[in-house]
Amino acid sequence: MPYINIKVTDELVTREQKQKLIEGITRLMVEVLNKNPDTTHVVIDEVPIDNWGLSGRQYSEIKKYKK
Amino acid sequence: MPYINIKVTDELVTREQKQKLIEGITRLMVEVLNKNPDTTHVVIDEVPIDNWGLSGRQYSEIKKYKK
Amino acid sequence: MPYINIKVTDELVTREQKQKLIEGITRLMVEVLNKNPDTTHVVIDEVPIDNWGLSGRQYSEIKKYKK
Amino acid sequence: MPYINIKVTDELVTREQKQKLIEGITRLMVEVLNKNPDTTHVVIDEVPIDNWGLSGRQYSEIKKYKK
Amino acid sequence: MPYINIKVTDELVTREQKQKLIEGITRLMVEVLNKNPDTTHVVIDEVPIDNWGLSGRQYSEIKKYKK
Amino acid sequence: MPYINIKVTDELVTREQKQKLIEGITRLMVEVLNKNPDTTHVVIDEVPIDNWGLSGRQYSEIKKYKK
User: Fold this and answer.
1) Residues in chain B within 8 Å Cβ distance of D56
2) N- to C-terminal Cα distance for chain D?
3) Over A37-48, what HEC string results?
4) CA A16 and chain centroid, separation
5) Is the pLDDT of residue D66 over 80?
6) pLDDT digits 0-9 by tens, D26-62
7) Of residues D2, D25, C58, D27, the one with CA closest to residue F15
8) Do residues A22 and B47 touch, judged by C-beta distance below 8 A?
9) How far apart are alpha carbons D38 and D41 in whole angstroms?
10) Would you give per-residue pLDDT tens digits along chain C (67 residues)?
11) Cα–Cα–Cα angle for F50, F56, F60, nearest 5°?
12) Which of A15, B10, C41, E26 is geometrically suited to a Cys-Cys bond with B46, CB 3.0 to 4.6 A?
């Protein structure tokens, strides 16, 4: 009966990537914890880059200097 | 002082339905736990159906075969 | 497929009260949103009263003056 | 290694306000808990006013009568 | 910069199982989303079985009849 | 009406530190967003160090090598 919530910055995560995350995490729950996949829920929240802060700064600012 | 967070798939939940959820949950907190409604917060998050996984698959895929 | 998380102060919530909350919220999801109870998860987190703040003060402090 | 999640009603929070929240909260974690800012994450979720309930009513309704 | 929160029933999850979950989920974030493991946080919350509800019933009740 | 949830490793956070976090975050909400402190809730979750992962490893492991 696990519930897994992923918070990730909203940077063009594709439908296929989401499917892979859901599949991979569900498989982990089955293999490591012997959970039933039919009661395993995975929810992905995509967070705008202005709304995520790290080291005291918005990720939208951090990104500018990463390139 | 309860805080209740509802995660639900984003499938045209109406304003009236949201009001009923907020009202019903707040009433439960008052009746069951004797809480003050003025400090009872309810927050509804609507999750895109590509972002919710069950049984290792995206809900957008599951929906196709439910009909 | 809703997931509902309740945060409530840890003040001797009984097993029966928890059961009533789970039952009542699940019924709301069925009646208001037509959800399947078998995919409706409710998780209750009990928070120590030192760890909950309101109006800028710990609830353990607020409680002292409520009586 | 703290992670801080802010839920706030979606009422035109500006980029500058978000930056101030991220900066202020990160500073608190450093000053009060001696945390490393480089592992301090702050995530802001803006919630539509129809989706936030207080006192059993939607905030969109409460707002009408506040003016 | 993902943050992943796992809610799982508190049923003797071992230290080794927790390590496998953390490792497996972090690897997924790197492989699927190309994330930096050094900003990937995984937090596991173990929920007492009286506090988790499914199908309108406490998991502690459901468990009795599963055997 | 903000709700703020802090997840922090469980490493002897004192009552005074919790009070400072609650006070500081509430003040930020008032100063930056003009929020009412009486509807500002802060909830602190202390997470066992075996249950927090960073860089794919449990924090309890990381700590051993930090000294």
Assistant:
1) 22-23, 26-27, 37, 40
2) 41
3) HHHCEEEEEEEC
4) 13
5) no
6) 999 999 999 999 999 999 999 999 999 999 999 999 9
7) C58
8) no
9) 8
10) 899 999 999 999 999 999 999 999 999 999 999 999 999 999 999 999 999 999 999 999 999 987 6
11) 25
12) B10
- Count of domains forming chain A: 1
3-state secondary structure of F51: coil
Which chains pack against F, by 3+ Cβ pairs within 8 A? B, C, D, E
Task: Please state the φ and ψ torsions of residue B34, each to the nearest 5 degrees.
Answer: 60, 35
What ipTM does this complex have? 0.97
| Residue A17 host element (H or E) | helix A15-33
Bridge partner residues of C58 (DSSP): C53
Distances (CA, A) of A33 to A10, A18, F44, F66: 30, 22, 27, 30
Residue A49, SS3 per DSSP: coil
The single residue listed with the structure tokens 């999750």 is B47
Shortest CA distance from F13: residue in chain C:
C51
Token pair for residue D62? 């409460």
Q: What angle do CA B15, B21, B27 make, to 5 degrees?
A: 135
If we measure between CA atoms, which residue out of C55, B16, D39, A8 comes closest to residue F54? D39
Please say whether the beta carbons of F53 and F9 come within 8 A: no
Straight-line distance from the first to the last Cα atom of chain C, in angstroms, rounded to the nearest whole number: 41
Q: Do chains F and A touch (3 or more CB pairs under 8 A)?
A: no
The enclosing domain of A19 has a CATH number of 3.30.429.10
Q: Are D4 and D41 in contact (CB under 8 A)?
A: yes
Inter-chain contact F3–D7, Cβ cutoff 8 Å? yes
Whether the pLDDT of residue E66 is over 80: the answer is no
Pairwise CA distance, residues A63 & A59, whole Å: 6
C and A interact (at least 3 Cβ pairs within 8 A): yes
F66: pLDDT strictly greater than 70: yes
**Tens-place pLDDT, residues B9-66:** 999 999 999 999 999 999 999 999 999 999 999 999 999 999 999 999 999 999 998 7
Range of the domain at F32: 3-66
Catalytic residue check, E48: no
Of A51, A56, A60, the CB nearest to D43: A51
